[in-house]
Amino acid sequence: MTTLPLNPKPSDNAIIEAESLSSIKIPSVIRVGSVPYLNAKPLTRFIASDVAKLDPNQLAAVLRAGNLDVALVPLMEVLESPANTYRVVDKLAIGAERSVFSVYLNYSVPLAKIKTVALDPASKTSVELARLVLEKFHHLKPRYVSTDEPADAQLLIGDPAILHRQANPEQNYLDLATAWREHTGLPFVFAVWAIRLPSFWRALAVAFQLRSAKRIGLSQRDAIARTPFERQYLTEHLCYDLGARQKKALALFAEMLTQTGRLATNPKLTYL
Questions:
Q1: pLDDT classification of 21: cutoffs 50, 70, 90
Q2: Residues in contact with 20: Cβ distance below 8 Å, sequence separation at least 6, in sequence order
């Protein structure tokens, strides 16, 4: 597949402002957080309120500490948390049906000979998916190292992963969403909106507002995208649904992690 630049010189007629369309105003007392990646823009671009932007694992930690009320966190944050910590916003996620393009293993030896893997600490969900793909699907037992150590393969995610893949198309890539689909027949869910407001009714109202922001954002993906590649990425690689198939995939992921001891228990999630 031909890839095009992620960040060219902006074009005035390719960028829209929230003020030009209806935006969703979440009450200012509710603290909202998201990630600074392109994949989140259709979900957050039309939230008129302030949205804190942090790397996935930092975002999860801030939400867990009670310094945010709602955040677009890695799936592992809700899977690992005690029951009833979060309510998950239904019908809304960041995932992929097949190739996600931006979450992959970049490897320099034949796949079957990978012995060391450098893990990007930014998202625990991608780390756990990489481990499952290598250990369960490919029956490998690599040693995992930090990103400052030499390794046969490296996990990359998000916008940095896109830029690396575009700059080095000749290298070897194992797209983790594709690997998951090939072995399970299901999509993969990387991130969900998690709410930790104590009031059910306020949480329900916020969930409705987030779904409204999603509807506007998805309808404006062509305008949000600054390049043909960004348009392709937002419309073809990513899936923003959280329906029956995504929930089945989510449950299977949790079951596999429980079986391998990566999760203590298989959680039951609460959806709004």
A1: low
A2: none
